[in-house]
């Protein structure tokens, strides 16, 4: 080792916790003339010579402080008001400056730079030519490498890895083995979690999410509140936006557009295809310039291609030879069949497409099937001949058979009513903020055993049938209220004295009960529970098996997922995301001590993604 390059000034120090001190340092020889580090230059503070190597050109300058077991070695620099402590190391040509705090066992190495008001802690590593700045947080076992950039209020947790020239910024979140590389950009309020992978030149922004192993790559653009999950793969120039959902083993490739409330499950969408509005594709393929929109459902290995335009009904792959398109509204399935035939076949099968169109028009005009069969047979016999006549007659028989079959499927067994509930004459006027609305109580028209509802039972209160789906076993019971544009669907239940209002949405097998309030654009889904006096508002989400109860409140874009529980008087605001227990004790938010040990290790992600880190990083220094 060379002679010592600096000394500790025993009369210039700052106090640390526990009565320890950090001393200002001064150069004993020229260190780097190009940067003005000459003999006699006064630097920052270190606790002992173990914190700053006498080898190389490493230095601590300005009011920066290095203490505890932390080390600065090689040609690394720590400056500004930065703090490096615990067992953190800054090596090679790395730079830590500004008001950055690096602690735990964090590593800043190679030519990486950490500056601004950033926090890097736990076992996190920033390496290569990576940059972490502004108010970003990097913790747990996350790695930022190569020429990656993390800035704004971005939060990187878990075993996340960002590399190549990827950028994560604004209020974006990465957690739980998330991976971002290439030239990908994650920004706004977007999140990648659960082994989700974003690469290439892909962009993820808005409130979009990629999780559960899904991969988004090439030039794909995911925005709005769209989600890509499961083993889904999105590539090419695909655009996914709105509230669209892509999941299962789906593939979305090429110049496709998936938007609005469209859903893709275990399907392949390619070419220039579009799926919009409430269109759904399940275990099927949509390709070419096909357009699926409205309330259309494509299922059971169906293939939609060319320029087909499907705007409603069900295209069932089991009946593709006859283009069996059935509308979900009972009593109109025969017409839906014909309209679907027109949509599917008119572009390449004139006889079938045009005949379906004309038959649809005639039935709508009031003609019976017997009349149509007689008239069409006569016309075909008089105007065609040979094999083409046989073909036309076979098409006619096929269409008539399809209409009869479709209408037969519309008949309910045992005279079971199509609707599961009706609006009674019992009304009441309720006030919400600055307006009044008239509500009507509902009555069950058939049993809903899943919720213990018998035919004739009275339920809760709704403003219109738009609030409670007639499909599935969803129900509103007791004195619960659902109004505005709020929706209860699938197997969900709202009961007790709960209120769901605004654009809120309760779906899946979710439960809202007690005196809970779900309002604005909040979403409660899967097996989530909101109860007692809890409030979920704004664009907050409670999903999976998450629970919000007692007097807890979620607002902004906060999210509870997994098996997370938020209770007592906890308030989660803005973009906080938790999948573990959060409770308020002694006026402080903390994780519940009763939860498994492995979950308590995630405490640095509690409530605000950075607040836990900032609390731990709060400087113990008192300037003299």
Characterization of this structure:
The protein has 624 residues and is of the alpha/beta class. 12% of the residues lie in helices and 30% in strands. The chain has a 19-stranded mixed beta sheet. A 15-stranded parallel beta sheet has the order 4-7-10-13-16-19-22-25-28-31-34-37-40-43-46. Helix 1 (333-345) crosses helix 4 (386-409) and helix 3 packs antiparallel against helix 4 (386-409). The two termini are 33 Å apart.
Topology:
Blueprint lengths: L5 E10 L5 E7 L14 E5 L12 E2 L4 E2 L4 E2 L4 E2 L4 E2 L4 E2 L4 E2 L4 E2 L4 E2 L4 E2 L4 E2 L4 E2 L4 E2 L4 E2 L4 E2 L4 E2 L4 E2 L4 E2 L4 E2 L4 E2 L4 E2 L4 E2 L4 E2 L4 E2 L4 E2 L4 E2 L4 E2 L4 E2 L4 E2 L4 E2 L4 E2 L4 E3 L3 E2 L4 E2 L4 E3 L2 E2 L4 E2 L4 E3 L2 E2 L4 E2 L4 E3 L3 E2 L4 E2 L3 E3 L8 E2 L6 H13 L4 H15 L4 H15 L2 H24 L11 E12 L2 E10 L13 E5 L12 E2 L4 E2 L4 E2 L4 E2 L4 E2 L4 E2 L4 E2 L4 E2 L4 E2 L4 E2 L4 E2 L4 E2 L4 E2 L4 E2 L4 E2 L4 E2 L4 E2 L4 E2 L3 E4 L2 E4 L5 H4 L10 H7 L7
Parallel strand pairs: 3-5, 4-7, 5-8, 6-9, 7-10, 8-11, 9-12, 10-13, 11-14, 12-15, 13-16, 14-17, 15-18, 16-19, 17-20, 18-21, 19-22, 20-23, 21-24, 22-25, 23-26, 24-27, 25-28, 26-29, 27-30, 28-31, 29-32, 30-33, 31-34, 32-35, 33-36, 34-37, 35-38, 36-39, 37-40, 38-41, 39-42, 40-43, 41-44, 42-45, ...
Antiparallel strand pairs: 1-2, 2-3, 47-48, 49-50, 50-51, 70-71
Helix pairs in contact: 1-2, 1-4, 2-4, 3-4
């Amino acid at each position: 080792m060379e002679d010592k390059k600096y000394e500790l000034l025993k009369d210039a120090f700052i106090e640390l916790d526990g009565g320890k001190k950090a001393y200002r340092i001064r150069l004993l020889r020229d260190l780097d003339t190009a940067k003005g580090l000459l003999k006699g230059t006064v630097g920052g503070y270190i606790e002992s010579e173990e914190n700053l190597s006498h080898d190389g050109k490493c230095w601590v300058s300005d009011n920066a402080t290095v203490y505890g077991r932390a080390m600065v070695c090689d040609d690394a620099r720590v400056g500004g008001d930065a703090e490096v402590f615990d067992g953190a190391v800054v090596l090679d040509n790395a730079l830590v400056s500004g008001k950055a705090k690096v602690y735990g066992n964090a590593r800043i190495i190679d030519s990486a730079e950490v500056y601004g008001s950033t926090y890097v802690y736990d076992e996190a590593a920033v390496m290569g030519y990576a940059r972490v700045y502004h108010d970003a947080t990097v913790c747990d076992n996350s790695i930022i490498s190569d020429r990656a950039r993390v800035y704004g209020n971005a939060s990187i947790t878990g075993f996340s890895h960002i590399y190549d020239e990827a950028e994560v910024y604004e209020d974006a979140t990465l957690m739980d083995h998330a991976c971002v590389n290439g030239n990908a950009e994650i920004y706004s309020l977007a999140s990648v979690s659960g082994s989700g992978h974003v690469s290439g030149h892909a962009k993820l922004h808005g409130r979009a999410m990629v999780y559960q192993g899904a991969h988004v790559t090439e030039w794909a653009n995911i925005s709005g509140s769209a989600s890509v999950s499961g083993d889904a793969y999105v590539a090419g120039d695909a655009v996914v936006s709105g509230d669209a959902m892509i999941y299962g083993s789906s593939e979305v490739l090429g110049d496709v557009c998936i938007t609005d409330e469209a859903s893709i499950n275990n399907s392949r969408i390619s070419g220039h295809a579009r799926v919009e509005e409430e269109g759904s594709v399940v275990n099927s393929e949509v390709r070419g310039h096909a357009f699926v929109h409205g309330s259309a459902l494509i299922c059971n290995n169906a293939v939609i291609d060319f320029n087909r335009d499907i705007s409603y009904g069900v295209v069932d792959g089991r009946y593709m030879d006859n283009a069996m398109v059935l509308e979900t509204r009972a009593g109109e399935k025969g017409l839906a069949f014909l309209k679907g035939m027109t949509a599917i076949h008119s572009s390449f099968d004139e006889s079938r497409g045009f005949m379906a169109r004309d038959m649809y028009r005639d039935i709508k005009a009031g003609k019976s099937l017997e009349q149509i069969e007689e008239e069409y047979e006569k016309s075909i016999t008089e105007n065609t001949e040979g094999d083409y006549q046989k073909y036309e007659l076979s098409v006619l028989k096929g269409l008539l058979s399809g209409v009869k079959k479709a209408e037969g499927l519309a008949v309910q067994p045992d005279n079971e009513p199509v609707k599961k509930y009706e609006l009674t004459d019992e009304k009441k006027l309720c006030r919400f903020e600055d307006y009044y609305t008239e509500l009507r109580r509902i009555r069950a028209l058939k049993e809903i055993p899943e919720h213990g509802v018998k035919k004739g039972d009275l339920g809760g209160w709704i403003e219109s049938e738009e609030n409670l789906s007639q499909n599935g076993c969803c129900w509103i019971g007791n004195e619960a209220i659902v109004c505005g544009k709020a929706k209860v669907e699938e197997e969900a239940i709202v009961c007790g004295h709960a209120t769901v209002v605004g654009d809120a949405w309760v779906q899946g097998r979710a439960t809202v009960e007690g005196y809970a309030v779900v309002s604005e654009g909040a979403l409660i889904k899967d097996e989530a529970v909101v109860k007692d006096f809890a409030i979920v508002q704004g664009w907050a989400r409670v999903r999976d098996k998450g629970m919000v109860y007692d007097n807890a409140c979620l607002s902004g874009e906060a999210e509870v997922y997994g098996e997370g529980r938020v209770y007592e008087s906890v308030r989660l605001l803005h973009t906080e995301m938790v999948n573990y227990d959060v409770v308020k004790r002694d006026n402080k938010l903390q994780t519940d001590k009763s939860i498994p040990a492995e979950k308590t290790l995630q405490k640095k992600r509690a409530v605000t993604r950075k607040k836990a880190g900032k609390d731990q990083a709060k400087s113990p220094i008192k300037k003299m």
